[in-house]
Design goal:
The protein is mainly alpha-helical and about 150 residues long. The chain contains six helices and no strands.
Amino acid sequence: MKDFMAIETTAGAGGVILKILGVPVLAGAAATALGFLFMWPKSMREGFVRFTCAITSSFTAGPLLAMAVYAKWPELFDAARHAAAAAHVDPLLGILGVAAPFLLAAALPAWWILGGVFLWFERRRGKDIGEIAHDAAEVVKDVRGAL
């Protein structure tokens, strides 16, 4: 039984790109769809920005979140790999099944976080970098005090 399959042996160049990029794009699209269920975009531009933001977050923060969970709970990924092998499918599909929700979870709050950052900067329009840094330090101090 083969434990891992090399990515380049399973498909041509197009298949490799699809394997690497497909899952984060699908996770970002799913997160965007969930976000649209809660709040429909006001314009086509906003919808495109939200979609792009979710995919970017899925690409960047999703793997980091999955790695953090793997570092804390590697048995989950091992169990998924063994379950997939027992079902006679590629063991990497089991790992993907465990990691995909983390890609989705990383993409969900991306639009609101981006909006919050831009609103924070908009409220500080006209201030220099020192004043913005001072405001940021005050926000951090307030948050730490609340915890």
